[in-house]
């Protein structure tokens, strides 16, 4: 929380924004012809989420988007990153389009532009149409083809007004927790199926990028438009200098970072990990043309979602993939895959109530490591935020820990720019309090509080006015 008078390192065209995701904020789960997503079904199954919470209503952004956009404009947001709900546009995942869903997003985009806020669209933030899951979900090539149809519709409908696009959000999470740990839909613990599903996601991404560039070449969408991919950025460091801990850390990098960044930034998988996967499980299976498709459709930019670093240790014993969803600090057990690596905590570090290390320098460190591997690709910090149980004192939401967290991370972003990293925007998670997938409404991230007991009334938090000053000063008042 500095107020140092200095020339900002953030360029004049730097985008100060905030982010959200359709399932977590919109509600209107069956409004106006929307079809069910996998999360609409999964969250209603007993024991899947905190206290049975779901996104049926969420923050009701679907019905209150004009009120929310007015708040964004008041805060001074220059950009808003949001996702489109695929089953709102295609209730069956493909085939017949839902005009009411298309109108909602068109109206939202127009409302943002009217207030001088640049839209950044994420095509897929985990809410796969249930109809496609019923035919195999991401394990099916039919889902790949359906995604291309969906992406093309979005480009055709919104490409004249939207310049920033990303295809997928956090493959590490929706594939990792959907197919390896079973905590997200489809709730599987099957490495073979997960690896093949992950491959199909990258092929769907490449097909969408190819279509996007065809539209740009034919001038059907804005020539200044760019398309990227959003990944978790989770730097790993070995807990000691022991050879086994260093080796475990390298394995974590290969599996949790390089496997997910290489296909979209280099157009190929890490060769040694690909060889291990195909020798062990026989996957990923490549269809004719897959290799060339990946190679010829590299991203224009990468979006990084940074929340924490992980300390890595060798793991001869721990086989646990459950995480802290209670918000009780220290209640999480060591997470690890036996024989590969595990995440460990150190008393020298500071942690959130959900046992996530607070390490602002990691934002700069992580981007530098990615730059070292992939070159000077443009970065957008597409998520960064503190999940907390915000105190309300005499009617005011005094979220000082969030202000401290974001201030320190903005300083790290500025440091990255000074070191020559091409950072073009900062989108804290999230603009408004929303549903946390597994944690319900207890884990708050927003600048705007949503009163679940009072008709979802919106209330500006202390951080709202702080971020307003950050934006107005282009990052110097923080």
From TrEMBL:
<feature type="binding site">
    <location>
        <position position="24"/>
    </location>
    <ligand>
        <name>substrate</name>
    </ligand>
</feature>
<dbReference type="InterPro" id="IPR017736">
    <property type="entry name" value="Glyco_hydro_1_beta-glucosidase"/>
</dbReference>
<feature type="binding site">
    <location>
        <position position="125"/>
    </location>
    <ligand>
        <name>substrate</name>
    </ligand>
</feature>
<feature type="binding site">
    <location>
        <position position="307"/>
    </location>
    <ligand>
        <name>substrate</name>
    </ligand>
</feature>
<dbReference type="Pfam" id="PF00232">
    <property type="entry name" value="Glyco_hydro_1"/>
</dbReference>
<dbReference type="GO" id="GO:0005829">
    <property type="term" value="C:cytosol"/>
</dbReference>
<keyword id="KW-0119">Carbohydrate metabolism</keyword>
<dbReference type="InterPro" id="IPR018120">
    <property type="entry name" value="Glyco_hydro_1_AS"/>
</dbReference>
<dbReference type="InterPro" id="IPR033132">
    <property type="entry name" value="GH_1_N_CS"/>
</dbReference>
<feature type="binding site">
    <location>
        <position position="429"/>
    </location>
    <ligand>
        <name>substrate</name>
    </ligand>
</feature>
<keyword id="KW-0378">Hydrolase</keyword>
<comment type="similarity">
    <text>Belongs to the glycosyl hydrolase 1 family.</text>
</comment>
<keyword id="KW-0136">Cellulose degradation</keyword>
<dbReference type="GO" id="GO:0030245">
    <property type="term" value="P:cellulose catabolic process"/>
</dbReference>
<dbReference type="GO" id="GO:0008422">
    <property type="term" value="F:beta-glucosidase activity"/>
</dbReference>
<dbReference type="InterPro" id="IPR017853">
    <property type="entry name" value="GH"/>
</dbReference>
<feature type="binding site">
    <location>
        <position position="169"/>
    </location>
    <ligand>
        <name>substrate</name>
    </ligand>
</feature>
<keyword id="KW-0326">Glycosidase</keyword>
<feature type="active site" description="Proton donor">
    <location>
        <position position="170"/>
    </location>
</feature>
<feature type="active site" description="Nucleophile">
    <location>
        <position position="383"/>
    </location>
</feature>
<keyword id="KW-0624">Polysaccharide degradation</keyword>
<protein>
    <recommendedName>
        <fullName>Beta-glucosidase</fullName>
        <ecNumber>3.2.1.21</ecNumber>
    </recommendedName>
</protein>
<dbReference type="InterPro" id="IPR001360">
    <property type="entry name" value="Glyco_hydro_1"/>
</dbReference>
């Amino acid at each position: 929380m500095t107020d140092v008078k200095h020339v900002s390192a953030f360029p004049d065209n730097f985008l100060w924004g905030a982010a959200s995701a359709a399932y977590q904020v919109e509600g209107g789960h069956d409004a106006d012809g929307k079809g069910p997503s996998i999360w609409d079904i999964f969250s209603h199954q007993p024991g899947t989420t905190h206290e049975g919470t779901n996104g049926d209503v969420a923050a009701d952004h679907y019905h209150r988007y004009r009120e929310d956009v007015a708040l964004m404009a008041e805060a001074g947001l220059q950009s808003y990153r949001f996702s489109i709900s695929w089953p709102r546009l295609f209730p069956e995942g493909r085939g017949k389009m839902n005009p009411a869903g298309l109108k909602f997003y068109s109206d939202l985009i127009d409302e943002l532009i009217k207030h001088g806020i640049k839209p950044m669209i994420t095509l897929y933030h985990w809410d796969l149409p249930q109809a496609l899951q019923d035919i195999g979900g991401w394990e099916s090539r039919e889902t790949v083809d359906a995604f291309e149809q969906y992406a093309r519709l979005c480009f055709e409908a919104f490409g004249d007004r939207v310049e920033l696009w990303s295809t997928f959000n956090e493959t590490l999470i929706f594939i990792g927790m959907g197919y390896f740990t079973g905590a997200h839909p489809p709730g599987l613990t099957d490495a073979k199926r997960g690896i093949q599903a992950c491959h199909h996601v990258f092929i769907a991404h490449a097909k969408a990028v190819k279509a996007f560039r065809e539209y740009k070449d034919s001038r059907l969408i804005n020539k200044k438009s760019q398309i990227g991919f959003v990944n978790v950025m989770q730097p790993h460091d070995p807990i000691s200098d022991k050879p086994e801990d260093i080796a475990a850390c390298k394995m974590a990098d290969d599996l949790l970072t390089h496997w997910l960044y290489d296909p979209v930034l280099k157009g190929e998988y890490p060769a040694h990990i690909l060889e291990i996967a195909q020798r062990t499980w026989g996957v990923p299976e490549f269809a004719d043309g897959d290799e060339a498709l990946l190679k010829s459709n590299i991203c224009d930019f990468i979006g990084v979602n940074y929340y924490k670093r992980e300390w890595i240790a060798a793991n001869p014993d721990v086989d646990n993939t459950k995480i802290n969803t209670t918000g009780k600090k220290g209640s999480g057990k060591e997470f690890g895959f036996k024989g590969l690596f595990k995440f460990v905590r150190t008393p020298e570090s500071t942690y959130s109530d959900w046992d996530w290390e607070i390490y602002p320098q990691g934002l700069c460190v992580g981007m530098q490591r990615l730059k070292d591997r992939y070159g000077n690709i443009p970065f957008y910090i597409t998520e960064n935020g503190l999940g907390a149980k915000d105190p309300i004192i005499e009617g005011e939401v005094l979220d000082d820990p969030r202000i401290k967290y974001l201030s320190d991370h903005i300083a790290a972003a500025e440091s990255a720019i000074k070191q020559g990293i091409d950072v073009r925007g900062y989108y804290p998670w999230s603009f408004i309090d929303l549903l946390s997938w597994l944690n319900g409404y207890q884990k708050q991230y927003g600048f705007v509080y949503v009163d679940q007991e009072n008709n979802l009334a919106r209330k500006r938090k202390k951080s709202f006015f702080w971020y307003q000053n950050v934006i107005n000063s282009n990052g110097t008042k923080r």
